[in-house]
Inverse folding.
């Protein structure tokens, strides 16, 4: 994605990752739901045009999505889909790419929570190379060009039991969409998306009240300055945090709450 679409996707991804952060059990089901929403929209050229039309009011797009999917997907998936409809996109296909990449992100977040993100990233690159290096596999996948679901079956059959289940799901999804990009390049795109995610730092932030966008931006800039790279912030409201913030990035804990300051002052007095 480029230009407006890139900005829109970054905003939607940040909001969606924060929403999913509190419920790890919902990640894999949400990923499959996001894929199903993308496929349902993709099945109708008229629907794609309607939802990607920059001249159509966002309220109309949201109403369309609600009518189609409110009873078919969970609340988090529905809200993520609506966030996409509220934004502008440079190309018609970008809304489909955005829905799909949100699903990919959910699976990668699950992999990260299980400590296997680097493994999945490596395996996806390996699958891409496997397709490139095998003329037989390339022919089989190209021969199923008009039936992407058959492509997914071929890869699942080949990979099941040989790589992590998240790798299987992501590789199958990569080749299972009707798109002109070669299967090996699609798998490689997902691998690079995983690589970008792994290079980001992640901060778990607790505060007594929600932080507004300006506060989140300032905090993100401070953390990026400390770690020398982008830091993804997952926010949680915790009434026990009387004031300030409690921030954890990996093994680093920054406790700037009022209670923490009082505790340190008390310790100094006792000493």
């Amino acid at each position: 994605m480029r230009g407006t679409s890139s900005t829109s996707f970054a905003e939607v991804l940040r909001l969606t990752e924060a929403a999913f952060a509190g419920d790890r059990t919902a990640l894999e089901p949400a990923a499959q739901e996001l894929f199903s929403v993308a496929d349902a929209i993709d099945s109708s050229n008229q629907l794609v045009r309607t939802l990607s039309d920059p001249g159509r009011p966002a309220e109309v797009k949201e109403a369309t999505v609600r009518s189609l999917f409110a009873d078919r997907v969970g609340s988090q998936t529905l809200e993520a889909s609506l966030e996409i409809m509220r934004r502008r996109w440079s190309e018609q296909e970008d809304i489909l790419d955005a829905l799909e990449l949100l699903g990919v992100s959910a699976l990668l977040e699950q992999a990260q929570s299980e400590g296997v993100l680097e493994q999945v990233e490596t395996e996806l690159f390996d699958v891409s190379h496997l397709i490139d290096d095998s003329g037989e596999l390339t022919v089989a996948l190209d021969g199923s060009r008009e039936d992407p679901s058959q492509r997914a079956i071929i890869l699942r059959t080949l990979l099941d039991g040989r790589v992590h289940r998240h790798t299987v799901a992501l590789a199958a999804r990569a080749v299972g969409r009707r798109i002109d990009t070669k299967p090996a390049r699609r798998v490689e795109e997902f691998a690079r998306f995983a690589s970008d995610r792994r290079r980001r730092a992640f901060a778990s932030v607790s505060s007594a009240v929600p932080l507004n966008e300006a506060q989140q931006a300032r905090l993100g800039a401070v953390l990026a300055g400390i770690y020398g790279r982008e830091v993804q912030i997952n926010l949680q409201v915790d009434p026990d945090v009387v004031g300030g913030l409690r921030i954890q990035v990996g093994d680093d804990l920054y406790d700037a709450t009022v209670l923490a300051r009082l505790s340190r002052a008390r310790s100094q007095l006792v000493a």
